[in-house]
Design brief:
Length: about 110
């Protein structure tokens, strides 16, 4: 990373830039942004079928967080009767999972 920054910026500024990058949640993304080469990875707008849960119907993409490499999404939950049948109105919730799990259904949910 240092060599790439030195090739583009004044060498006397590079150590400070690396210090700032290392203070972020994702130093690699920070340096790519500084260099102007960052490209968002592919993110599906619908979850992979293996990433879906019957307990969380209507999962909807909200945003991708490049710093944590996580997909934020919303989903519905329902109260259920004694037979497990949903009753009443849905409650909307918001959470996240790893981009890899969202896209492929593998690699760990968090």
């Amino acid at each position: 990373m240092k060599a790439a920054l030195t090739a583009k910026f004044n060498a006397s500024d590079v150590d400070a830039m690396l210090e700032i990058a290392n203070a972020t949640p994702n130093p690699e993304v920070a340096v790519e942004l500084m260099l102007g080469i960052y490209q968002q990875p592919d993110v599906n707008f619908t979850p992979h079928p293996d990433a879906k849960s019957q307990d969380y119907p209507n999962m909807m993409f909200e945003k991708y967080d490049k710093w944590s490499d996580k997909v934020h999404y919303t989903y519905d939950t329902y109260n259920k009767d004694k037979d497990g049948v949903p009753v009443g109105e849905a409650k909307r919730h918001s959470t996240y999972m790893s981009r890899k799990y969202w896209n492929t259904g593998t690699g760990g949910k968090w």
